[in-house]
Here is the input.
Amino acid sequence: MKQRLFAFSALIVFILLCASCTPAAVTVTPEPVVEETTQPEPTEATEATEAIAPAAAEAESGPVVLTLVNGDQQLEFTLDELKSQTATSGQAGMLSSTGKITVPAEYTGVLLTDLLDLMGGITPDLGVNIVAEDGYTMTLSYDQVTNGGFITYDPSDGTEKEFDEQLRAMIAYAMDGQPMDAQRDGTLRMVVISSTNNQITDGHWAVKWVNRIEVQPVSKEWSLSLAGNREEVIDRNTFQSCGTSSCHQETWTDEEGQIWAGVPLYLLTGRVDDELKHEGPAYNRDLANAGYDIELVAADGYTTTLSSTDVYYDRQIMVAYLVNDAQLPDKYFPLRLVGADTEKGQRIGAITEIRLLMDEVNAMLGYEETAQPSDETPAANTEPAEVIIPEGTVLAITGQVTNTLYLSDTTVSAFPQVKLTLEHPKKGKGEYEGMYLNFVLDLAIPMEGAETLVFTASDGYSLSLPLADVRACTDCLLSKCEEGKLDMVMPGFESSAWLKDLVSIEVQ
Here is the structure.
C-alpha cells in the first residue's frame, strides 16, 4: 500500500515539474499519507487526521483509563477520549465515616448518566458498580444514578439535612480547574455534584482511582441494626464500603471451596460498644475482655449467641455479604455469620440485627459512670490518667516495650530509607520506599514475653499480628506517603495487613 501511494505521488510530482514553464516557482505539497504513517505531535493539521486514523490517534492519546461494561458490551476510554465527551462541572464535598468534613470544591468530568447512555442506559432492575484500581467497589442503585437519591449533609457542621438541589453522580478528571491529584485521587474519581456548594454527601461515594464501571442486575436494598451502648442502622452502601478489599474485608473459603467475604464481627461490635463509632480506639477492649454476649438475629427471629471474649480481635469470625463475589442466595440474604473460627451450628443466615448485651459488664467496670462527664472529685485511688500523646506525633509505639516512642515527622524522615520491589497479594509487584519496620521495633525494644503487635490506623481500625511473624519479615516497611502519613508494606502477609495511615503500634 505504501509503495503504491509513494509511486503515485512521485508520478504527480514528475508531471507537474515537466509541465511547468517556470520550475523555480513551483511548490508541490503532496497529500499526507495518514493511514499507515507514524503520527506527529498533535497540531491543527494532525487533529484533522484523527477521524481518518483512529487507531493511531488512540495510541497517541495514552493508555485506557476507564472501561465501561454492560453485559457483552464494553467501551474503553483514554483520558483524551473521556475529555472529548460532554463535560459537566459542579460542586462536591464529603463527610467521612470519622466525621471529617471536606468542603465542596468544583469538579469537572462526565456525568455517569451520559456514560451509561453510550451503552443504552439502565433500567430500574439494574445497578452500577463503580470499581477502583485496588478492587474497591461501590454500587449505585437506579434511583441514585437517575434521580440523585443520596443523603445530604450541611458542610458547616456535618448534620444531615435535606436540600432542594439536584444531585448527580459524575466521573471527574479535574478539580478546581486542575487535573486530579494522581497520588491522592488517581486519574479519575467519582463525585456527587450539585450546582451550589451548600451540601455534601457520604465520603464512600467519592470513590478514588476509578477505572471501571459495570452495569449489573441490582441487589435488593437491606440494612443491619446494631445495638449496644449506642444504636446504629447500617445500610447496604455503608456495609459494602466497610467490606471492600481495600478497607476491612476478610475472606474465608468453606469446605466446598466457596469464597465468602465480609466484615469481622468484632469491628461491627466496636461501632456500638461505646460512644466511639469509628474514630480513635473504636473497639473497646476492656468491655470485650470483661465478657458480654453478642446476639445475632435472623429475619425470622432465630438467634445465635457468641461471647465477646471469643470474638476478641478474631478476623475469622465475620459477617459475610458476598459469596463468590455475588450477593448471598435467598436463604442467607443479606448477611451470614461465617469463618474458620465458627462452628457449623453458629453460621446463622439472613442476619438483620446484632445486639450487645452489656448491662453486666457496664456495671462491673462502671462504664456508664466513667463514660459521662462528672463534677465529682476523683477518688484517691483512681486508675492512671490516659497517656497524652505529644503534639506532632505521627507514630506512637507503646505497651510492653523498654522505650516508649512518640515519633515526629522530622524524626521519621531522618531514619534510613530503602527502595524495594515487593509483591502485594492482590496488586502484584511494585516499587516501595520506606524504613524497615524491624528498625523501628529495635528502637522500642519489645520486652521479654511480648507476643502480639496491635497496629492501629487513624480511623480506629486495628490489626493484630504475632510479634514473631513480624520479626521474621525482613522486608516489611513503613512507607511515608502524603501529609506525613505512614502505610504498612507487608510482603508475605494478607492484604488486610497492608494497613494505611498507621498511627500507633502497641506491643502486648
